[in-house]
Amino acid sequence: MKIKQISVFLENKKGRLFEALKAIAEKNINIRALSIADTSEFGILRMIVDNPEEAKNALEEAGFTTKISNVVAIGVKDKPGGLAEVLEHLFKADINVEYVYAFVEKSGEQAVVVLRTNHLDKTIDLLKVHGIKLLSWEDILAL
Amino acid sequence: MELPFWNREIERLPKKNLKNLQLERLKNTLERIYEKVPVYRKKFQELGITPSHLKSLEDIIKFPFTTKEDLFIDYPYGLLAVPLEEVVRVHTSSGTTGKPKAIFFSKKDLETSAELIARCLVMTGATKEDILQNSMTYGLFTGALVMHYGAEKVGILVIPAGPGNTERQIELMKTFGTTLLHMTPSYALYVASVILEKGLIPQKDLKLKTAYLGAEPYSEQTRRKIEEMLDIQVYNCYGLSEMNGPGVGFECPYKEGLHLWEDNFLVEIVHPETGEPVKEGEIGELVLTTLNREAMPLIRYRTRDLTRIISEPCACGRTHIRISRILGRSDDMFIVRGVNIFPQQIEEVLMGIKGVAQNYQIVLENYDEMIVKVEIDREFFDGRIERLLYLKNEITEKLRQTILVRPKVELVEPGTLPISEGKAKRVIDKRTL
Q1: Over 50: is that where the pLDDT of B422 sits?
Q2: For strand B131-134 and strand A133-134, is the pairing parallel, antiparallel, or unpaired?
Q3: What pLDDT, on the 0 to 100 scale, is given for residue B94?
Q4: I want to staple B181 with a disulfide (CB 3.0 to 4.6 A). Which of A77, B19, B211, B409 is the partner?
Q5: With bands split at pLDDT 50, 70 and 90, how would you rate the model's confidence at B232?
Q6: pLDDT of B424 higher than 70
Q7: What is the value of pTM for the model shown?
Q8: What's the CATH class of domain A2-69?
Q9: Which of A55-59, A131-135, B359-363 is most confident?
């Protein structure tokens, strides 16, 4: 149930985000979800794409520093308190969330939340126990 | 383990005896140049000083420096302390001013320079059974010839290969079973990569054991890389034509600094701007006085090379002083918030931190703002921001501890800064006053 996410180190330099996105667009790679974490001088672009390996190659060819890592993606009811409920389970189990980003699915019924924690396997087990819907790679591709 | 010596007695001479020998030779040198070299006599007279003012080694600071420019006074023979007919060889070194520096050797001087090289080679375990491929430039430069005669003195078979023609270098290694190499570090790195590209297995196809690399400064990282690529020991050697050439400073098997033969050279480390001695162990400019040179003695010669003295006794048993690897040129120094900083101090700190790639750049902006741009190592990046912030703090703190100024550290993408090797510009000073 782990999903591959690609992270890209970005200097805070004009045009750098554009160049990264251009590199993967040229390979016809589609972005499913995207987030940017930034500090004053650099940022990290995180993406779920339909072909992570090819995206990594394309970005590295263009000189970018990248890393593919595992995250979990969950479907959360698109209503107030939906995400809070999930996080409460993690909090009680003493699992730290490293980062999280979310987007609303096309149908509008559920939000897709991408989650990275310090204990990914434990997180998956815990969410399953609580009946939270984990998205598979196929689910992601179908979005 | 009993380590080999070429000249055990002198190499292990007790410190006190070594100092006495230095004082005796220094007196002799000062007297000779005062008497025989008008350039020096004039310098002494300007300072109102005579050789008799030297009572102890510490008194050396009363005497004048010799700079590169001084080598061009009464050029080319003006600094000779012997009649020209006693001179048997001249070497030159590239001068930026057009004329090359000319250094003269008497028969005895050639003998001495070979003796010093012999000590160095034997110190690293070389014996007469070895085969040295000497890939420095033969000719006007000291690099190849001085090494050549020193190696022959040990009884080593010397292949006078000279530099370049990498294919032939490798052929020579294969044909003659070369065990020792003498070349520049940048060329060694290139030769090693060609050897591996050709699919040769150094342990099987070659007999290399040791490489003596010098004539340009290089980092510990580069040394290890070459050692790993060829499965050999790499020893750092330091020399300059003005002081005989190679063999002035040389590493022993402990590789913790370069031994400088104190029976032949008097070592000082001074502040590059003021010329005052630095505190023991601090970085400064290496200043050398020849103690045993006949044809062309030089006193307090400003090498422009930066290093520091390592005063702890060496485990190898040699009593001769050690200096750190050459950290760069004194001309590279800059001042931020009143503190003197050498780019090499920053480089040393950076290279000791995991997650940092090879290249860095220092940018100085108005109000004495110092920005250190550091490329991150691709392997280090794991997608987490905390890790990068931690790295940034680590770099900032370690730099502050070393240079006493808190720099602004910027992490940049690998491959975006000018490459370290060669003469890349490390410091960009944008300050306007």
Answers
A1: no
A2: unpaired
A3: 65
A4: B211
A5: very high
A6: no
A7: 0.71
A8: alpha beta
A9: A55-59
Q: What is the mean pLDDT of residues B117-125?
A: 97
Give the CATH architecture of domain B1-331.
Answer: 3-Layer(aba) Sandwich (3.40)
The one-letter amino acid code at A117 reads T
Closest CA–CA distance from residue A8 to any residue of chain B (Å): 7
**Band (A106; pLDDT cuts 50, 70, 90):** confident
Q: From 3.30.300.30, 3.40.50.300, 3.40.1550.10, 2.60.40.10, which CATH number describes the B334-429 domain?
A: 3.30.300.30
Q: What is the pLDDT of residue B397?
A: 96
Instruction: For residue A9, give the nearest of B389, B410, B413 by CB distance.
Output: B413
ipTM of this complex prediction, to 2 decimal places: 0.81
B412–A42 C-beta distance less than 8 A? yes
Residue B423 has pLDDT above 70, yes or no: no
Using CA atoms, how far apart are residues B402 and B407, in angstroms rounded to an integer?
A: 11
Instruction: Give me the residue spans of the domains in chain A.
Output: 2-69, 71-142
CA distance B357 to chain A (A): 12
How many beta-carbon pairs under 8 angstroms link A with B?
46
Cβ–Cβ contact B175 with A under 8 A: no
A42/B389 touch (CB, cutoff 8 Å), yes or no: no
Q: A67 and B383: CB-CB below 8 Å?
A: yes
Alpha-carbon distance of A30 to A14, in angstroms, equals: 23
Question: Residues of A with CB below 8 A from B415's CB?
Answer: 63
Convert the pLDDT of each residue in B278-315 to its tens digit: 998 888 999 999 999 999 999 999 999 999 999 899 99
**Nearest CB partner across the interface for A37, out of B378, B385, B412:** B385
pLDDT (tens digit per residue) in B375-407: 999 889 998 888 999 999 999 999 999 888 999
Question: What is the pLDDT of chain A when averaged over all its residues?
Answer: 89
- Whether residue A65 and residue B385 make contact (CB cut-off 8 A), yes or no, is no
Name the residue ranges covered by the structural domains of chain B: 1-331, 334-429
Compute the nearest-CA separation of A109 from chain B (Å): 30
A71-142 homologous superfamily: VC0802-like (3.30.2130.10)
**A2-69 and A71-142 have identical folds:** yes
